[in-house]
Design a protein that fits this description.
about 290 residues; SH3 type barrels; Immunoglobulin-like; 4-stranded antiparallel β-sheet; 2 helices; 16 strands
């Protein structure tokens, strides 16, 4: 820019010298037209030089553009911390789970000494809903036993944790049966008590033992067999070699004395005689 000013000054002096001449003379009479012409020439020259200066500066700026910094976006987390910035620090490594129960599946192992943002608290004020940033912003529940909380706990919202799923159990049916008193069969001086037995379990019954007691005189009778035999119309009836699951049979037991009108107790024991083994008893009370 100083160079341009020097050129302007030299041009003005040169024009003035040309206007005044080099031969010394007496004081001339002022020439108004010449003065105007000189002023116009000076102004035109200065305007041309200013235009050249502007073009030069533009060219320089184009060759040397000013570097404008590009702002980088600020990374934001996937959660919003509570306004009061409640945090907790663990004194012991603790599992963070998707519920507050010991059987709730764990999500992450939170390290002792680290601080975590607390988002909510459970209704019993015993567990905290936190964000675990080491696992891509995982949200989970941590038990408060080893937690030291900083901040206003009262400002935390209350969340209800996810309950444990209700387990579905499939009952395993073992050896079982039902029994009921059917009636008595009288054949002369002989008395028979008849029972209805049904296999309600998953195993096969292969033998039986029946103990009957007359509660009025304590008379007891014991009967056992490896077949299930009925006694009807004073003759042996249908017999079954065993009772498979769902199968049933009537069984008759001969006793001593007339049980009519007496309180009777019968204990029926069914057994498995194969490798599975095992026996089940049932006791009933009845009056013939």
């Amino acid at each position: 820019m100083n160079k341009n000013k020097g050129i302007i000054s030299m041009a003005v002096i040169l024009l003035m010298l040309l206007a005044s001449g080099c031969t010394p003379t007496a004081a001339p009479t002022p020439d108004l037209a010449a003065t105007i012409a000189v002023n116009v020439a000076v102004e035109q020259t200065m305007a041309a030089l200013q235009t050249q200066t502007i073009l030069t500066e533009l060219a320089y700026q184009q060759m040397n553009p000013t570097e404008t910094p590009t702002l980088q976006p600020t990374a934001t987390s996937e959660y919003t911390a509570t306004p009061e910035n409640v945090t907790l620090t663990l004194s012991k490594d603790t599992y963070c789970r998707n519920g507050i129960f010991a059987k709730s599946p764990f999500v992450a192992l939170m390290s002792a000494g680290q601080t975590y943002d607390v988002l909510a608290i459970d209704p019993n004020n015993q567990a905290y809903y936190v964000v675990e940033p080491d696992h891509t912003f995982t949200y989970c529940w941590v038990w408060g036993e080893y937690a030291t909380v900083s901040g206003d706990k009262a400002s935390l919202p209350v969340y209800t944790p996810q309950p444990l799923p209700t387990p579905t159990y499939t009952a395993t049916v073992g050896p079982d049966f039902s029994v009921s008193y059917v009636g008595q069969q009288v054949c002369g001086a002989d008395y028979y008590l008849r029972f209805f037995i049904k296999n309600t379990g998953s195993k096969t019954w292969q033998s039986l033992l029946i103990n009957t007691t007359d509660n009025s005189n304590n008379a007891t009778t014991t009967y056992n067999n490896t077949v299930f035999v009925d006694y009807l119309n004073c003759a042996a009836g249908v017999s079954e070699s065993d009772l498979t699951p769902g199968e049933s049979s009537n069984v008759a037991v001969k006793i001593s004395g007339d049980p009519t009108g007496h309180s009777m107790t019968a204990t029926i024991v069914l057994c498995q005689t194969d490798a599975s083994g095992g026996c089940n008893p049932r006791t009933i009370t009845f009056t013939p």
